[in-house]
Amino acid sequence: MAPEVVKETEVVKEAPKSEVEALEENLPSAAAAVHQLIREDGEKEMRRKFRALLWSAIAGGITMSTSMLARAILAAHLPDTDPAFLIESAGYTVGFILVIATGQQLFTENTVTPVLPLMTSPTWRNLGKVGRLWGVVLAGNIIGGAIAAAVFAFLPMFSANVDAAMIEIGEGLMENTAFEMFSKGIVAGWLIATLVWTLRSFESWAFVMIFLVTYLVALGDFTHIIVGTIEVLYLIFLGQLEIAPAIFRFGIPTLLGNVVGGAFIFALISHAQVQADVDHSRPAQ
User: Fold this and answer.
1) Distance between CA 7 and CA 107 in Å, rounded?
2) Given 1.20.1080.10, 3.40.50.300, 1.10.1160.10, 1.10.3720.10, which CATH number is that of 29-275?
3) Sequential DSSP letters for 68-87
4) Per-residue model confidence as pLDDT tens digits over 120-144
5) How far apart are the first and last CA of the chain?
6) Would you state the pLDDT for residue 264?
7) How many CB atoms lie under 10 A from the CB of residue 40?
8) Burial class (CB in 10 A: 0-12, 13-18, 19+), 88
9) pTM listed for this prediction
10) What are phi and psi of 255, to 5 degrees?
């Protein structure tokens, strides 16, 4: 009797759906799915304990110093030309890549994440939670950044060229007027908030998206409250900048610009878009 031949059938497995794709099936749009995921992230962040937030933010502030460091090292070894500036600016992306990859707290990420729960449910309780989160993360980032800036300023770690490049970066930042700091801060806040939104849609392209968006921040010389604070503190520790201009010409205008760009413009428009989708999808009464 002839042996029975069993034909193997190929089993074609569908690629697993992303969180956005899975949610989109039950929501009116992909934007609504991203909105829900970011809102849930924001709610989770607002529930975190004070100590956990603070330590994560301090670590984030220290890690963000690598943006200044990488940029200075590249600048120290490149000629002072326009093409060299394009390469030097790539160093700015390092801190953002590391902070986001390690899940550490960064203030400008939080200008959109906890704001969506607040806009969804605008209560005094949620407003207080957002204020608490912002305050803790901003303070932690500044503490971490100050630690890194002090290490760079007081320990003999780098060559004279690298030290000079870090000074030049800080001095270049302080050439902006307060209004320029604010205006550029709006764009930086918008771009970082866009990045947070984009990472939920293109999870497999996270590295590329972080690089592209933060590279654009560097190329445009847009002001970022945490990276800029490290650059400014470095000058203060070296005795080359007074505290008053650091606060009133850089700190306050840049902080307000980042918040306006990230929270009040991007988050508001994104929330309004999703709310319009939800209202349109509801059956008529």
Assistant:
1) 59
2) 1.20.1080.10
3) HHHHHHHHHTS-SSHHHHHH
4) 888 999 999 999 999 999 999 999 9
5) 72
6) 78
7) 14
8) buried
9) 0.85
10) -60, -45
